[in-house]
Amino acid sequence: MARPDKAAAVAELKDKFTNSVGAVLTEYRGLTVAELKELRRNLGEDATYAVSKNTLTKIAAREAGVEGVEEHLVGPTAIAFVDGDPVAVAKGLRNFAKANPLLVIKGGVLEGKFLSVDEVNKLADLESREVLLAKLAGAMQGTLQQAVSLFAAPLSQAARAVAALEKAATEDPSLIGGAGTPAAAPEGNQEPSNEELAAASAATEDDAAPAAEEK
What are the backbone angles phi and psi of residue 77, rounded to the nearest 5°? Predict the structure, then answer.
């Protein structure tokens, strides 16, 4: 590889180490081109999987400040740079390795920290982001349903009570007035109307006029 090409390759690897969520180092010795294509399809958009020269990878890792990977860069190496969910990538690589023992996981890097093979496998045992989000959504939905039930139960009981009261009042209107409603005043004790007050006032004025003339 010409020197400019090596410099470009190192720069690209350094960029991937720096900007990716993480990376998983693998040995792919013996895998066919078709099997490698299948692995890339399985990883999907969560990772880019590419073969890399060990010497260039060492330089790129050193320049990116990633420690612990150099001793694992032995034999044919391909790196899965994580662009999405690291748990999904770890699961995909481990599951593929179970079906295709020629793929060997040699370690990884997550947020700048080196991971051993055991740590990569433990990462694969975790639940993926999609599963966690689904569980969270389910828990929130359950909580909302409980809240709706708490609010709806008293309202339905109140509605039934009001309906029963309306039915009883229809059958016996006296229930609405009740014992506490003031009874109608007798006719003799009713307050005079405006017309009656006006007539009484006029009569008073007529009676007072002759008295004034006598003086």
Answer: -120, 135
Contact by Cβ (8 Å): 69, 57:
yes
Local confidence pLDDT in tens for the 215 residues of the chain = 557 788 999 999 999 999 999 999 999 999 999 999 999 998 988 899 999 999 999 999 999 999 888 889 999 999 999 999 999 999 999 999 999 999 999 999 998 889 999 999 999 999 755 554 565 555 555 555 655 554 555 555 555 555 665 666 677 666 555 544 444 444 544 555 555 555 555 555 555 444 444 44
- Cα–Cα distance measured from residue 75 to residue 31, given in angstroms and rounded to the nearest whole number: 13
- For the chain, the structural domain boundaries read 3-126, 132-173
C-alpha distances (whole Å) from 143 to each of 15, 52, 135, 193 are: 44, 49, 12, 65
Strand-pairing partners, residue 104, are 27
* CATH T-level topology, domain 3-126: Alpha-Beta Plaits (3.30.70)
Category of 181 on φ-ψ map: left (φ > 0), alpha (ψ -120 to 50) or beta: beta
Helices marked H in 68-127: 86-99, 117-125
pTM of the model: 0.58
* Amino acid type, 22: G
Whether the Cβ atoms of residue 20 and residue 83 lie closer than 8 Å to each other: yes
Q: For the chain, how big is the Rg over CA atoms in Å? A: 45
